Amino acid sequence: MLFISLGGFGIGAIIGLLLCLRVKGLNSQKLLAAGKNIAFGIAFLSSAAAFVLGLRIILSRQELSVKLLQTPLWGSFSLRIDFLSAFFLLVVSLLGCAVSLYSIGYTKQFTHRGKTGIFLFLYSALLLSLVGVVTAGNAVLFLIMWEVMALANYFLIEYEHESVSTRKAGFLYITMTHIGTAILVIMFMILHSYAHSFEFTAMGAVMGTIPPLVRSIVFLCALIGFGVKAGLMPLHIWLPEAHPAAPSNVSAIMSGVVIKTGIYGIVRVSFDLLGANPLEWWGILVLGIAVVSAVLGVLYALMEHDLKRLLAYHSVENIGIILMGVGGALCFSSLGHPTLAALALTAGLFHVLNHALFKGLLFLGAGSVNQATHTRNIEELGGLIGHLPWTAMFFLVGAAAISALPPLNGFASEWLTFQALLFGFNVSDFALKLAIPLTIALLALTGALAAACFVKAFGITFLGGARSHHAENAIESPMTMIVAMGALAALCIVIGILPGSVLTLLDPVTNAFFAVHIGSAAQLNPGTLLIQQGGGTSSSPLFIALLLAGLLLVPIVIAVAVGGRIRKRIAMTWACGLERIEPQMQYTATGFSKPIRMIFSNIVRARHEIEIENEISPYFRSTIRYELKTESIFHKYLYRPLNRAVLNSAHMLRNLQTGHLQTYLAYIFITLILLLIFAR
Amino acid sequence: MSDTLLIIASALVQLCIVLIGAPLIAGIIKKVKARMQNRKGAPVLQPYSDLNKLLKKEVILSSSSSWVFRATPYIVFTSILLIALLIPTLIVPVSLHWIGDIITVVYLLALGRFFTALAGLDTASAFGGLGSSREMSIASIIEPAMMLAIVASAVTAGSTDLSVIVSSLVSSPVSLIHPAHMLAFIGLFIVTIAETGRIPVDNPETHLELTMIHEAMILEYSGRYLAFIEWASQMKLFLFLALLSNMFFPVGIATSVTAAALIVGAVSLLAKVVVLAVVVAVIESTNAKLRLFRVPELLMVAFILSLLALILYFIIGG
């Protein structure tokens, strides 16, 4: 199964490359269409194979290890799929299936043959490397896959390289990701110096012998190195630039699964490679970063009116929510509460899957909107629900799921996160008791702000009246795109209603780390989440859904019994006495988020400039220009000083380069002497 | 079999109490306010006639609205009905308490609010967007305060299950006079005022664009749709007052399903809710509505009180 999947992605990549070749005597457009369909079809099947493989490993409770080749220097390159890998394989492959299907319709707009061929090659390579990253059992193989993923991603971001902003976004991405990779290389070198092997199993085995200081350094390296990829604040700056720049199907993969490889790395290092006894401050640090990422992520998202940038900032927010679970697990584990740790990690990993599903869905929806209207600016949209009924419905499901509304999947994992954190009160530790109420309050704030943001994103885009010609003339996407979005929406609902089924899949993962079954903390019942700790608490999304459907009868019966058949009249919205209402009179996205901008003005730092020109008198204005900018505090206080420091030190180093041969010879001589002294 | 019947019967009784009691409380608040303003006021039963009339009237739909606008009243009404099954009103534990705890209740409220706000944007009128924007902004600062107030009450019971919380208070009434518990009460009371859209946060009786929040979102609703939305907000107020009274003064609530206990439960519930409703009416009559951007300060008070309550628990101990 593994080789079917890996081979499939390989074949997909080769088809892409073949398409780039010029073949004489063939109808190139037909060939292109056929090649595209075959390549995406193969990517779909390979993802499905990976899904089956992951599911089989978890259900049969048998890890899989495959040796690829033996290298003289770096040990054996092997793929080792333990339960954590298998779970991430499920996440990758689920989204891989949906996006491959969606891409068949979406890439109809790609008509340039060479470029499309390269796109297919990179797309397959990206999926292949994603599978490689989560299954690699050797640090060097892992880094190679990690780098392939980063490069494939970079070139996919640059697909629309004609625009300057895309090129800038790509550059920022490649810089940030390489800083992260450099730190990861350092981390694996440290681990290697103790384990004398690049195999993950060997690294995990010697962790008891490593001094705490070194373990902390390794942990910090992992947090930074993987944190760049995951988009943790303040390392997130590339994310809201790069994710929107890529074609929407790639954005869905990036936001849905690529950033999750960062989470995979953090979990792999802190729970597997560093053993079962983390230090407490790691957990508190992760909780702190998580809270900052979640709250600031959603606040910046609210300030955006570019649909895809808005979604990208929400990825930062959701990574924060995921890390609340991971951080909680680190804290509980360090204080000797394995059951609570298992519960917290389960909550975090559950949110990994959920976020992949609804964020993938939302980005695909944004792609459909973009394809239909050729704009991502929601201030120019509106009323799309009439033109894109299916896209609108599925986007609404995604929006409700990301806002954690019951009975959808986002609710189940946020509920678990709340519960896991709440039990921190029973742990007698002062730092944790202070950290937890704040984390809970800020998680609640995040959830409410996310709901506000998605009321804006869905309401302004799909409801009301069209604000431009683009929106008026939109037409619904092709069938494959709708089916792909529908499948993801259905999964959001099914997993939301039956969250226990995912907990069953996560049980072996946490059991491997904490040696407890999640069943001892939360009963595994498909439709009900039941926590047995303390006084016992439960929430049953299945019955919430059933009762919501059943109780719907009450208003219907009342309406029919009292009012009889409904009498309707269609009329114009009240226009305050004017003749008719213009779409420009509607609330704008900027106006919508104004109260939040005011309430949180210390954080979002909005600056607005108004220029008014008048010719005759101030009462007759000829032009008004209004500009609103929000400035990121990280740009101002972290990156700009950092940039300046780097440039300044480069300037100083320039003095070394005198251009005189004698000086360079002197440098060589001094180096030689120093080497002779220190490296005897 | 008889167990299942009992569960269904008690759930139905609870639904009926909330459905029928809610307009009465709204009527009482209106009457008290009128008396305080030296007016005679409408009869206490007026809200029932209003609902009846609205249900019979024709519905006017905006030409730019979609199915979201038509589905919203049903979603809002149904989600409040579900909450009515989860909050202990007459009897504790509620028969269906395992379906959802207080966090579920908070998110069910969010479900109704989410769709109401979308409906506000659906009519393409400026007022709807204004209301949605304000409602979602205020809700986002209500929610942390509400969650902390809840956590402060949940922490002693070791559970977020409302029935478990109320049961544990019934069995150990000493914790009722814990200072932390009282602080949490004030916190949750402020949250109730804000969440149900009463003065000084929102004014349910105004249609002036400067001050509208909730009313602006539902401005385009008419007929039965309006009836359901109005009824749902009356039920929301009723449920919040019932929650406050049972979480902080669980006197008289039935702990077993006997006729006598249920009657005592019903009478005491009504008495407590009416007292709280009068308090709300007095606050409404003696306070002016706050400016929109002063509301966060009020909610910050609720937040800090709840945080203090939690810290007190750690210092004094449960």
Written overview of the protein:
Chain A has 680 residues and is mostly helical. Chain A contains 27 helices and 8 strands. Among the domains of chain A are: 48 residues, no CATH class; 44 residues. In chain A, helix 3 runs antiparallel to helix 19, helix 9 packs across helix 12 and helix 11 runs antiparallel to helix 12. Chain A is globular and about 95 Å long. With 318 residues, chain B is mainly alpha-helical. Helix content of chain B is 71%, strand content 1%. Chain B has 11 helices and 1 strand; from the N terminus they run ααβααααααααα. In chain B, helix 2 packs antiparallel against helix 9. The longest helix of chain B is centred in the N-terminal third of the chain and has 35 residues. The model of chain B has no long low-confidence stretch (mean pLDDT 88). The chains are: A mainly alpha (680), B mainly alpha (318).
Give the number of helices of chain B: 11
Q: Hey, roughly how much beta strand do the residues of chain B contain?
A: under 5%
- Biggest interface and which pair forms it? A-B, 88 and 90 residues
Total number of distinct structural domains of chain B: 1
Helix-strand makeup class of chain B: mainly alpha
Q: Judging from the principal axes of the Cα atoms, what is the shape of chain A?
A: globular
Strand order of the largest sheet of chain A: 3-4-5
- Per DSSP, the total helix count of chain A is 27
Q: Could you estimate the helical fraction of the residues of chain B in percent?
A: over 70%
The assembly state of the depicted protein chains is heterodimer
Strand content of chain A: 5-15%
Structural class based on helices, strands and sheet pairing of chain A: mainly alpha
Which ranges of chain A are low-confidence, i.e. pLDDT below 50, for 5 or more consecutive residues? none
Task: Compute the number of strand runs of chain A.
Answer: 8
* Regions with little confidence, pLDDT below 50 for 5+ residues of chain B: none
Q: Average pLDDT of chain B, to the nearest integer?
A: 88
> What is the global morphology of chain B?
globular
Radius of gyration of chain A: 27 Å
Intertermini distance of chain B? 40 Å
Secondary-structure element series of chain B: HHEHHHHHHHHH
